[in-house]
Specification:
alpha+beta; Molybdenum Cofactor Biosythetic Enzyme, Chain A; 2 domains; 6-stranded mixed β-sheet
Length: about 300
């Protein structure tokens, strides 16, 4: 299932003057439906702060479902709908209409909700009321359909069962070039830049990938090969990366990338691995991608071939 964020909008909650009840209940409902909650926070009823938080979740962390609770009424500081409209590329009015229709069967005051739903990139932003009871009722009304919408939004629907897929095995960075990279638990792929914190980010080869299958070709000679030994950012499994044509688009975790280069030249007289065993797979079978849409990436994330160039 998809990753999700839950943002509680409340002045008193942000100041620690009121216990947040809506946020945890919304997160529990989403978790029970199979979503992975990767971000939870409480922000004040400040439009600019709400907008910045929504943008961070969508653009930096690449979270597909972003749910807010609070700030949808008539009070002067109820500005969550305005913040949502401002940051969204497109609105999804049917979702908010369905929630209001469902709530009207419970209370006529449901018509006073100004909740919105909209799309920013490959993220769906959904406003819920601040009342725990109303938030759960509204979310339950639309939750069964959200998964299909997110599949369409992120490009993982239709014939995706027949598309090539792989898995991220390791995420690796180094502070300087020419060094082996070190595994990290989670990385952030930054749009048109690369893997945050890595020395190669911002270069012409933003992110490097190497298949575990390629690494295993040298495993007999070097049984202690560790992830990042070839200075690769991502170790993958299940895709023969070097057979994909340049221009292929890959959905990696919460990001979208495009393959820009296959193979590279070894530095000088060759890397330490080539000097040790007379061979190195990175120059032949490693690939490089540029980041079209940023997002988090971690071991276990799926890699999905979205499309290949015409004629490939």
């Amino acid at each position: 299932m998809f990753r999700a964020a839950v943002i509680t909008v409340s002045d008193k909650g942000a100041q620690g003057q009121r216990e947040d009840q809506s946020g945890p209940q919304v997160a529990a409902l989403l978790t029970g439906a199979g979503y992975e909650i990767v971000y939870e926070t409480i922000v004040p009823d400040d439009q600019s702060v709400i907008e910045q938080t929504l943008i961070h979740c969508a653009d930096v962390r690449g979270i597909p479902l972003i749910v807010t609770t609070g700030g949808t009424g008539f009070a002067p500081r109820d500005v969550t709908p305005e913040a949502t409209i401002t940051v969204c590329d497109r609105l999804a009015p049917g979702i908010a209409e369905a929630m209001r229709l469902h709530s009207l069967r419970i209370t006529p005051r449901a018509m006073l909700s100004r909740a919105q739903a909209g799309l920013r990139g490959q993220s769906l932003i959904l406003n819920l009321p601040g009342s725990p009871k109303a938030a759960i009722e509204n979310l339950e009304a639309v939750l069964p359909s959200l998964g299909h919408g997110l599949e369409i939004l992120t490009g993982t629907t239709g014939d995706c069962a027949g598309r090539a897929t792989g898995t991220v095995i390791s995420v690796n960075i180094s502070e300087t070039k020419g060094q082996q990279k070190t595994p990290i638990p989670v990385g952030v792929l930054v749009e048109n830049h690369g893997l945050a914190g890595d020395a190669h980010a911002g270069s012409g080869r933003q992110v490097s990938l190497l298949g575990q299958e390629s690494v295993d070709k040298l495993r007999a000679a070097l049984p202690d090969l560790a992830p990042g030994a070839f200075a690769e950012n991502l170790v993958t499994e299940g895709l023969t990366l070097y057979t994909l044509p340049v221009g292929t688009r890959l959905k990696i975790g919460g990001s979208l990338c495009e393959l820009t280069q296959i193979g590279k030249e070894c530095h000088g007289h060759g890397c330490a691995i080539r000097q040790a065993v007379g061979d190195c797979v990175m120059p032949r079978e490693g690939v490089f991608v540029q980041v079209l849409k940023g997002g988090e990436v971690r071991p276990g994330d799926e890699i999905l071939v979205i499309d290949e160039p015409d004629g490939a």
